[in-house]
Amino acid sequence: MNEPNKQARPAGRREAIDVSDFVYAATGARVRRLTMPDGAHWFPAVDVCNRLGHTNPQKALSDHVPEDHREILETLTGGYGLSIPAGREWRRDLNVISLQGLILLVNACTKPACAPFKQWVAEVIETVQRDGSYRLEEAEVQPTEPGAPVAYAMPEQVADAIVRLEAHNLQLDEQLVSGQRELIELQRSTLAVQQALVRAMERIADRLDDLVLERRKPYGPPTALPTTESVLADWRRRLSVTEDVWTVAVVIAPVLVEKGELREPLESIAARTGLTVHRVNECLRLLRKHACIHSRGGSENGAPVYVLNHL
What we know:
It is built from 11 helices and 6 strands. By secondary structure, it is α+β, with helices and mostly antiparallel strands. The protein has 2 domains: 19-138 and 151-174, no CATH class; 228-308, Arc Repressor Mutant, subunit A, CATH 1.10.10. It has a 4-stranded antiparallel sheet with strand order 1-2-4-3. The longest helix has 61 residues, at 156-216. The two termini are 80 Å apart.
């Protein structure tokens, strides 16, 4: 229940029905409320209209709430010498309505949820017309403190509306929790599938590399260990070597033969060859395309790792 800057009511004054329960039964929500020093209750019109399905608050107020039951927040609080409540979007120009204005908006609402409350209002009017007054029944259990006021029972229609709304809200809460659990499980399943796909793609890539190597292997007895000269000679047979590609090949071939792999950043190769990083990358891509080298992922510092294909 939101009651910003609620003021104490004059001594001896009390409400037979708790206004929060009363408004909840009427609107289906614990809407914001200001209670003035004289005990009058005022509510943000936008809150009430949103809960009752009035899509145009200004028109709803104009059509259903007389001017003496609606006010601007700054004017209302100024009349009591109060400041504007802080937070919860309490703007100075906020339209607020009295409790009677709220009831008028509820009676104009066509939502089925408002029907029990409207039926109770009709019962009150009928009873007053017939008997001259309407009185709440006293509660079965009364307070025992000396001087305590009489407790009254909540009207049946209002109580039923509150019970129904609470049950509905509990059901919505359960559905929300269930939906969140399902979403978490779905996210876990999706992550597991993605991880499985990544592993499968890695296996496929490894197998393709193996097939390329097998295809390039000559038949017959194993050949001798490669040398820089044999590697460069093999690369000349595999592709039409341009000057830029040959410049890169001469730099990386000795490293591949001696260390078995190349972990040198592209910027380092570019500095040694006088080529741009982009051109070095293109040359390496051409060497990979013709199965001269193949990639083995990346190093710790982010540099690509290349190894020789078998001669």
